[in-house]
């Protein structure tokens, strides 16, 4: 695999760290800025909103630019956002800085996935995407715990300065390792990128992402009360267990990339089905500490097996101009984050039990399988129609009267 993928992984590591570390720093931020923890929780939403808005907006705005230049510029914006977070004087400024930090997230992964697949042979495209995503999953194992400890001992502002340094390292890596490329033509610029989103298969692929990863976040958003109230773990053990989720996610990401290079659609259906099964077993697995730890690992593995296939599928459905559609998939991921957490919360508030968000997630995973099946049926129908048209053209014989007119 090209060494340039390492530069993309470093950027993904920084982005993953800054996205998830806020969850662990909410008490410190709330205490320092004299706000409540629920109010501090809006900082998580501000970042997610930045991702949803920034992913398609920045991808469209940079459609004609060199992708190498775009990646470096996006990481520059990321560094600025984290630096402003570190020096934010109050809650409102920090909200704005977190929103700014989220803007380059989706476009970086979207454009990065296009660059990653362009550097490898067709039979290794999914693996190249999974290696870029490796930075995101490793951030959950190393980056987030270390950044959280730094914030607890040195202050939360030090954490964002540290993440900014990671961003600078990513910029240097991108400038050194990513090959230079020319800007895209008008045909594959903004007009081509926008046209890609008009495709039904692209929207079905995005819908699969929303449903599939909504299933993950319906359960993962409430994993702490499941582990403490149902499985009996102490609060102090949750951080280690969340690192186990990162281990499972990393394994699933690498496995999904390898399998998807052999069967993209099969890997997607298999991952979503496995996710539905794991989530449906949560009420049983959360009865003991050992099986609960296994459930956390399996959740990460099953969910992230689908990551690379979903990203690659969106890119293939918009093959003429993939950057905007690929970035939109990251926006769909964050919509899944918000929507899944909301649906899981509804199940919990309805009094169905502490593990009920996982069952709600299982329903969403089944919905994801259904959407993927519809997408498959659409592809088969389009393929059959195309084959008929090709046979008609190939078998057409001009009539005598037509020959005379010629």
UniProtKB/TrEMBL annotation:
Tell me which InterPro entries the record gives.
MFS, MFS_dom, MFS_Efflux_Transporters, MFS_trans_sf
By its UniProt entry, which SUPFAM superfamilies does this protein fall under?
A: MFS general substrate transporter
Any one Pfam family match given in the protein's UniProt record, by short name: MFS_1
Q: Where are the bilayer-spanning segments?
A: 42-63, 70-89, 95-119, 131-150, 156-179, 200-224, 236-255, 267-286, 292-310, 331-352, 358-378
Q: Where is the Major facilitator superfamily (MFS) profile domain?
A: 4-380
Location relative to the cell: Cell membrane
Q: How does it sit in the membrane?
A: Multi-pass membrane protein
Keywords assigned by UniProt? Cell membrane, Membrane, Transmembrane, Transmembrane helix
Signal peptide as annotated in the record: none
* Chief subcellular location: membrane
The protein, known as: MFS transporter
Organism equals Streptomyces bullii
């Amino acid at each position: 695999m090209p060494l340039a993928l390492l530069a993309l992984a470093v950027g993904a590591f920084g982005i993953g760290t800054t996205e998830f570390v806020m969850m662990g720093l909410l008490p410190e931020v709330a205490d320092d800025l004299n706000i409540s923890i629920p109010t501090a929780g809006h900082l998580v939403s501000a970042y997610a909103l930045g991702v949803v808005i920034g992913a398609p907006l920045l991808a469209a705005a940079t459609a004609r630019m060199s992708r190498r230049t775009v990646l470096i510029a996006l990481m520059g914006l990321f560094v600025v956002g984290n630096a402003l977070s570190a020096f934010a004087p109050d809650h409102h400024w920090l909200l704005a800085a977190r929103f700014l930090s989220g803007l380059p997230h989706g476009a970086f992964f979207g454009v990065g996935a296009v660059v990653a697949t362009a550097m490898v042979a067709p039979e290794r495209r999914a693996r190249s995407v999974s290696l870029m995503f490796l930075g995101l999953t490793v951030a959950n194992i190393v980056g987030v715990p270390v950044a959280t400890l730094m914030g607890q001992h040195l202050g939360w502002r030090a954490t964002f300065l540290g993440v900014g340094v990671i961003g600078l390292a990513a910029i240097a890596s991108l400038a050194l390792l990513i090959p230079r490329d020319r800007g895209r033509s008008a045909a594959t610029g903004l007009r081509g990128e926008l046209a890609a989103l008009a495709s039904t298969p692209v929207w079905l692929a995005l819908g699969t992402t929303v449903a599939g990863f909504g299933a993950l976040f319906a359960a993962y958003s409430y994993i702490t009360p499941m582990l403490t109230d149902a499985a009996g773990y102490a609060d102090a053990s949750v951080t280690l267990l969340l690192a186990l989720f990162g281990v499972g996610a990393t394994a699933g990401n690498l496995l999904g990339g390898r399998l998807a290079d052999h069967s993209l659609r099969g890997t997607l259906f298999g991952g979503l089905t496995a996710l539905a099964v794991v989530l449906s077993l949560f009420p049983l697995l959360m009865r003991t500490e050992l099986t609960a730890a296994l459930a956390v690992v399996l959740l990460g593995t099953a969910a992230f097996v689908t990551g690379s296939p979903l990203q690659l599928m969106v890119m293939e459905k918009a093959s003429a101009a993939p950057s905007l559609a690929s970035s939109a998939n990251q926006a769909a991921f964050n919509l899944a984050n918000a929507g899944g957490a909301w649906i899981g919360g509804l199940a919990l508030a309805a009094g169905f039990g502490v593990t009920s968000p996982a069952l709600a997630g299982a329903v969403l995973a089944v919905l994801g399988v259904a959407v993927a099946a519809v997408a498959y049926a659409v592809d088969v129908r389009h393929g059959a129609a195309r084959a008929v048209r090709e046979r008609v053209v190939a078998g057409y014989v001009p009539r005598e009267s037509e020959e005379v007119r010629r």
